[in-house]
């Protein structure tokens, strides 16, 4: 089932981006392409592999007008801790 051009229900979440905590809502997704990458948790096997690969190619996605969002059940504090301790 395709979800392209599907409306996202209203939501609000706190994220860690560029060294700070920011609020995200469905409005962040309007009018641009977005890729949501779901993973189990920070500090798991997926972090140094898939997320590192996305970080390596992030500027390429940005040049194409695409924003990437990593989504897990962790808090924004856990995301910051992983960011601060990860070599990537």
From TrEMBL:
Stated EC number for the protein is 1.11.1.24
Location of the Thioredoxin domain: 2-88
Catalysed conversion reaction? a hydroperoxide + [thioredoxin]-dithiol = an alcohol + [thioredoxin]-disulfide + H2O
Any one annotated GO CC term: cytosol
- Chain coiled-coil ranges: none
Q: Which domain of life is it from?
A: Eukaryota
Biological process (GO) annotations held by this record are: cell redox homeostasis; cellular response to stress; hydrogen peroxide catabolic process; response to oxidative stress
Entry keyword annotation includes rRNA-binding: no
Q: Which UniProt keywords apply?
A: Antioxidant, Oxidoreductase, Peroxidase, Redox-active center
State the Gene Ontology terms under molecular function. Answer: thioredoxin peroxidase activity
What family is reported? Belongs to the peroxiredoxin family. AhpC/Prx1 subfamily.
Please identify the protein, giving its name as recorded: thioredoxin-dependent peroxiredoxin
């Amino acid at each position: 089932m395709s979800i392209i051009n599907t409306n996202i229900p209203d939501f609000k979440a706190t994220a860690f981006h560029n060294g700070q905590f920011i609020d995200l809502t469905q409005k962040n997704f309007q009018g641009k392409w977005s890729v949501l990458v779901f993973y189990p948790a920070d500090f798991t096997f997926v972090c140094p592999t898939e997320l590192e690969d996305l970080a390596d190619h992030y500027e390429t996605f940005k040049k194409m007008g695409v924003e990437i969002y990593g989504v897990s059940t962790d808090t924004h504090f856990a995301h910051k801790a992983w960011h601060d301790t990860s070599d990537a």
